[in-house]
Design goal:
With 386 residues, the protein is α/β, with parallel strands linked by helices. It has 13 helices and 9 strands. Helix 7 links the parallel strand 3 and strand 4.
Length: 386
Amino acid sequence: MKHLSKNIIMAGFLIALILLMGCKSFQQDCQSDALKNAFKDYFLIGTAMNTQQITGTDLKADKLIKQHFNSITAENCMKSGILQPAEGVFDFTLADKFIEYGESNSMHIVGHTLIWHSQAPSWFFEDDAGNDVSREIMIERMKNHILTVVGRYKGKVYGWDVVNEAIEDDGTWRKNKFYQIIGEDYVSLAFQFAHQADSSAELYYNDFNMAVQSKREEVVKMVRNLIEKGIKIDGIGMQGHVHLPWPSIEEFENSILAFSALGLKVMITEMDMSVLPIPKMDVGADVNFKLEYHPELNPYPQGLPDSVYEAFQNRYLQFFKLFLKHHEKIDRVTTWGVHDGQSWLNNWPVYGRTNYPLLFDRNYKPKPVVQAIIDEAIEQKKTNMK
């Protein structure tokens, strides 16, 4: 009996040890799959969702989204050309599914974007003869679109990218159709209409290359003007479309400081990092900039060399260290896609390239920088507790 008791005790000990090791392994797995948990005391971690993810056909990405992210942004399904392809004819099929996904998973939902010159339907700006409509008609069309879209999702969308990319890098206003037909006040009108449709929703201005000094200064001027007029604006989205050598961390930081000094939230809204060469690094996300395919512009179709891979890891970590440094000013960091295979940068500005700009690879595996970012957040938390 004594021997039997001893054996039972030993068996129990071994089972407990196995369970403990399993728990430890489980905790490690969870930690490596828990960006949102690592940053819960700092800022939201978001991603942009594409059609396959919204409809549930990309199951591997779905798992990553639920494990990693607590905020989602509509990559394309809420742009005006998708929602209202013909005047007064709205198609909310995919946008509704996006909202349902966010609500069922308790996500912070961001609508993108209400007013943007790109991916807008041509009818928006033209009469039956193909000529530009009048200022009055343009304002009415803009108002109807915003009131309908924001009104439909009132109380469901936490915040809206109201206006996207209104300012050029040189600090001048982008001469898009909204500007040509209405003038600079199309921005203030868009914010007023969005607030009218949902007074509780946060409202943002969103743009790329926000680390460029001339652009930064004009955005500050434009936003300050809105504030002085009493127009509701809650935050500024800095699209994080960056490259390995550009922009500098210092200039990016200068913009975080300048925008937060306005008393607004700062968000890193479209984070990705291209590792591929293009003749002009500072094009940011200008969708009108396109280049023909040449093999020298697609140097890594089979994978990144170790030196480039290491440079990617180091620079991505540098940016997250910057975000942690200013976490009190930053409300959200959103990657523009889940994994490398879905990134728009595979087809822009050169169609058919193989890029590696996101935190997860084409096999849905986290890159080493994911754990490095998590470790950095945990380390900062320990430092702050001392």
